[in-house]
Amino acid sequence: MSGLPNILDGRLKNRELLSEGRLARALAALDGDGEETRLIGGAVRDLSLGRPPGDFDLATTALPEIVMKRARAAGFGVALTGAAVGNQQLVAIGLLAATLQMVTHTEGMLRELGRVGRESIVSFPNFAHWPNRLHVAAGRMPVTRVLPYQWYDTPNIRVGTYADFEVLAKKDGLAIIDAFGIQAGKAVRTWPNLLASVAVFKFQRA
Prior knowledge:
Number of helices: 8
Radius of gyration: 18 Å
Strand content: 25-35%
Oligomer: single chain
Number of domains: 2
């Protein structure tokens, strides 16, 4: 017994996400011809626990130029988010779910998304969610389902709020088409900066 509800004999019980949709297309595009591509990060944790992943991170042995060539051939856009270290963000046409708190060059990534996608979607933990405010008021960094790490071992390099993204989008010339929060799997459109643990924005270049 692994103690993980969606793991049996070291493998995922439900492999549907790996065999259809955008994730399967990305894996098929990047894997093969001597290269290997694997699902990593928070999605592995969520799938193992039987939770719906918020986004997907892939690690590949392919060089950056091969990644870009294969991704574009498969119908993805490619937004460079860390060219100096060979990182790319695959953009499904019209859609991207990105964890902004882990991106090094946030503004550059957003501008590139506006360029390569007709419309893009970003999601990230909303640090202004009211339980987080209580943690900070008590002098501690919050540890929640959406922000599950301690301050000393978190992969996040920044935190931000729903309201912060609205300001940044205006600054960078991005037109917000739709915006809402998510809490307990439900959309929050009233006071999302206070009542939602996750912020979601759909935008395009203005």
